[in-house]
Each structure stands twice: as structure tokens, then as C-alpha cells.
Design brief:
2 domains
Length: 247
């Protein structure tokens, strides 16, 4: 006996309702998956953004105070100065330049500079000195270490530790510091027994004590000294430079 028309309609409606319910369930599941993926992506983005500061904090947390890294400040000679020139004397990268000083504390330089976020370099990745002199013009203190220091594991460890105390980008201009190698290909050796040199491009002090006379400041040391770096950067801060606010 054939089904009644009402029964057939009821069964068809039931099938349609079942299909619609399955479709809505699938859409909800798909929506949950999309939301889940978005949450994971958001967490990854947040994690990536936080990784640098957290890593920096953790590294700093496990380092001794700057003044306790390396040798005592007494391993360094008194700073010397020389009249500086080359402010705004820019040339294109790759242009040969004549270095003034071993290492330089001022002079003609490339029209761009090395980014602030990098603090420690080796002979394999150090940029051309033309970039670094521009960093000096911007108020950086540069610690140069010679080949003897580069071959001494303890000295390199101390230099790395000193550099790590200045981790940070343009958010804190007091972190204008770089540690870079000086090689025989760059110029003459440091004075006998000296393996570290700190350089700074000064405009003659800050505030009322400023003279307005630009000088290059150089201090040689027989070994890395966090205490000496700390005092040097207090005596010659980044604001005492031709272009202190540039990074």
C-alpha cells in the first residue's frame, strides 16, 4: 500500500531537518577550528614579540653587574683626546676613507650606519669601519679588541658579557655601545701591552661645561674591564656627541 502524501512530506521534512542540523553542526565545528587557529596564531605572534625582551631580561639576570665583569679599571690608561674633524663628512658606502687613529674616534664616514640592536661582532661579521665611525658621530662608545684579545677565550667572554649589558635598540639611547674587532688589516697595532681601546666622538662635554670643540677620545686597556667601560660612558655619555639623538 502506498504511503500517504502527508507521510511522505513528513519524512522528507525530517530528512531536510536532519541535513540542516548536520550542516549547522559542521559549520559550528569549522567555526571552532577557525577560532582555534586564530588563537594559536595570536599566541605565536605575542610569544614572538615577547621572546626578545624576555630573553634579554633572562640574559641580564644571569650576568654580574657591569663593574664586576672582567678586570679592574686600573688596567686602563688615562683617556687621551685629539681634535676631531669629519662631522657630516659623508661618503657612499664602499668609498675608500683614510682612518684617523688606531682605532678611529672620529673622521670621514659612510652616509649610513650600523643598526643599534647589534652589540658584539667578530672578524667574520664586523661591518666596514666607515659605518662604525658614523655610529661614533651618533654618540656610540665603541670597544675595539685586537687580535690578541680575539684569540683569548677569557677576554672574548668578558667582552661578550660587557656587550650584553647594553642589549637594547633605540628605546634607550644609553645603550649606544658596540664591541668590534681591530685587525692588522685595519691599521697599526695598539700600544705595547694594550689589547682593548674605547673610543668616543665628543663635542667637548655637556651642559654649561660644554666647550663646543669636538675631540676624539681614546682609552687603551690591557684587558676588558666593565668598570672602565662604565666610567668611560659616564664621563663621555651619548649626549656628548655631534648627533646624540640619531640612532
Amino acid at each position: 500500500m502506498a504511503k500517504s502524501t502527508r507521510t511522505e512530506k513528513t519524512e522528507r521534512q525530517a530528512k531536510v531537518d536532519k541535513m540542516l542540523a548536520q550542516q549547522r553542526s559542521a559549520e559550528r565545528s569549522r567555526g571552532f577550528r577557525i577560532v582555534g587557529v586564530c588563537i594559536v596564531i595570536a599566541l605565536l605572534i605575542i610569544g614572538a614579540a615577547a621572546y626578545g625582551p624576555v630573553k634579554q631580561w633572562w640574559t641580564q639576570r644571569n650576568l654580574p653587574p657591569l663593574e664586576d665583569i672582567g678586570a679592574a679599571a686600573s688596567v686602563c690608561e688615562d683617556p687621551t683626546t685629539a681634535p676631531a674633524e669629519g662631522n657630516q663628512d659623508h661618503v657612499s658606502p664602499g668609498t675608500p676613507i683614510t682612518l684617523t687613529g688606531n682605532p678611529p674616534a672620529f673622521g670621514q664616514h659612510f652616509d649610513t650606519w650600523e643598526p643599534m640592536d647589534r652589540k658584539f661582532y667578530t672578524t667574520k661579521d664586523r661591518p666596514d669601519i666607515g659605518y662604525l665611525i658614523h655610529n661614533l658621530e651618533h654618540g656610540f662608545t665603541i670597544l675595539w679588541y685586537d687580535e690578541t684579545a680575539a684569540d683569548d677565550g677569557d677576554m672574548v667572554s668578558d667582552i661578550r658579557a660587557i656587550a650584553q649589558k647594553f642589549q637594547g635598540d633605540d628605546g634607550n639611547l644609553r645603550n649606544k655601545f658596540k664591541a668590534v674587532p681591530w685587525t692588522s688589516d685595519d691599521g697599526d697595532a695598539f700600544p705595547d701591552g694594550q689589547h682593548i681601546a674605547l673610543t668616543h666622538w665628543s663635542v667637548g662635554g655637556t651642559g654649561d661645561a660644554a666647550t663646543g670643540e669636538q675631540v676624539g677620545v681614546t682609552m687603551y686597556c690591557s684587558a676588558p674591564s666593565g668598570a672602565a667601560v662604565e666610567q668611560f660612558m659616564k664621563d663621555y655619555p651619548y649626549v656628548d656627541s655631534p648627533e646624540p639623538n640619531a640612532v
